[in-house]
Fold each of these.
Amino acid sequence: MDKASSHLAPPETPRAFGFYLDGGFVPAGERETFLRTSPGHGVPVTSIPTCSAEDVDTAVASARAAFEDRRWSGLNGADRAAVLLRTAEIIRRRAEEIAYWETLENGKPISQSRAEVGGCVGMFEYASGLARSLHGDSFNNLGDGMFGIVTREPVGVCGVITPWNFPFLILCERVPYILASGNTLVVKPSEFTSATSLILAEIMTEAGLPDGVFNVVTGPGRTVGQAMIEHMDIDMLSFTGSTRVGRSVVEAAGKSNFKKLGLELGGKNPQIVFADADLEDAADGVAFGIAFNTGQCCVSGSRLIVERSVADAFGRMVADKLAKAVVGDPLDEATQIGAITTDAQNATILGYIAKGQDEGARLLCGGEALDLGQGQYIAPTIFSDVTPSMSIAREEIFGPVLTILPFDTVEEAIAMANDTEYGLAASVWTKNIDKALMITRRVQAGRFWVNTTLSGGPELPIGGMKASGWGREAGIYGVEEYTQVKSVHIELGKRQHWIE
Ligand code: NAD
């Protein structure tokens, strides 16, 4: 897996993984296995065990034992930080291997996988500092007889359920922060993209993470995921995925042990472009925002809300940009847009493209599957003549499909941007600082970009408003989410007796 070897190819035989329990791989054994086919090449690349509900019980018991005996939470922050830093080093060393399997299972371009793995190194490095700096509070203003302390404690055993669109990145936006305060974990990756979560487990053991602190169970959501969301001994669950499954996570938490939840769900994110923007920059940003990761991003800028005076010209500028993007073999260094990750998602996107045409929207570009001789690809697509009530303007498509909605006034732009059940992300493009700040304040979104889009890093938190979810991941906010607060009241001196 040498980066210099420019002719990467899928493996000749699928790589067989075990699931990860108590510091080691457990081979599939008698369990069924899931053979994952590379969406970019149409050949099987990995073989993954289908775990049972009993396997989930065993993994939770392992994480519980590791939490209760304090082998991780009892360490000082500096020792936890050292493990997180060593993990970062090993990820850096094995980056090419991680990127290769990520691209094979997901279909994203190899250059993008490499960049994401680089970002994950930064997540572990940043969280290592937080393991040392996390602290509570004290109250010295309660009078001479009382002193108050607020401590932060780890929540306990955390479950993490991740989707297939950014398997390694989404994992690394959570795991180091969850570990920083001393929690233990059971992770369930998407059944389509399990390889890099399993590689991370192996890396963390090599980095010195005590056995049992990080466990990975593999298999479908309806069995393995369901067993996790209903589990009585998982204290907190981070779920990233569709709003539909997010609802069942909330219901299951209510019916089981009221586990604390972090939810990162869907989005239908506006890109608001004013006529006074640098339109060249904005066109590039809007093209990137809808075609990056083939639009299979929760934060894709899928609704272009553009000032009417420039709407037609700007739509053509974006279409011209997209026409130049290189769609192709995800293992090719030159590729910018890769394959659609799952067969179901491919059908969903093509279904929405057909629906858009049926509803009367006009295709500006794309609108079809691309036959590249192998795998499944869809041309980046733009619809104009869209009305706000059309399903392509309201529902999350999760593909490279952009809808154009023109506006006349700032108030109209804000109303259109907020006219959605979601509130995950938004971008505004203008050179007028007053307008930029007004839009930033009034559009409901957990992540906001001004004259850029889809940027991020370990410092700034991730999460949504409205039906896009609860809580925040990453940054100091991400660490604090996975702690619980305890108020300690310390009486000083002789007690004033209640009964004399
Ligand atoms: P999904 O909801 O189908 O699956 C997500 C995860 O949940 C997978 O691991 C899956 O196996 C599991 N799952 C499925 N059914 C389950 C059940 N009944 N109980 C427990 N777990 C279950 O989503 P997906 O198709 O993998 O991903 C696409 C969706 O995820 C999109 O809607 C997208 O917006 C959302 N997403 C959101 C973010 C974010 O940060 N907000 C990031 C990525 C993806």
Amino acid sequence: MIRPICRMGNPVLREIAKEISQEELKSESFRQLLIDLKDSMDHYGGIGIAAPQIGVSLKVAIIELEGPNRYGENSELPLTVFVNPEIEILTDENQGFWEGCLSVPGLRGFVERPSKIRVRFLNEKGEKQEILAQGFLATVVQHELDHLFGTLYVDRIKDPKLLSFQDEYEKFLQEKG
Ligand code: NI
């Protein structure tokens, strides 16, 4: 079911989401939550979505990234469910991308994040998983998982001048990204 998106200002986006137990993972309500996340992500045209964005303060996010993306980078990820994820940063090097968010509609902002990470998490069956991500995918994963810890991309914009409305971004800034 397509659910309404909670937007910046809604306190649920600022909570640290609750870890999901193995028991909850097997529940019908969790199965339905995954369906709602996927339906909502597809409907609103996201490449990822986290449970707090549909008002559910649980540590689960999904990402589906088909490459090559608008940055010409080939970073693909088939539909992946991240339950109780933990990120390990693998480099001192940062990379910057213009980010957008379903919870901050109509805007884009330039955010620098570590360019290489490892993520440990459980999949939808409760099995332990580990992935390495770099480039645009590393940014997407960090953006989505930030949602589980009460952080929005706007919090990470170093230069507030690099926050823009989407249409002005397309007109003036896109090439510089
Ligand atoms: Ni977001």
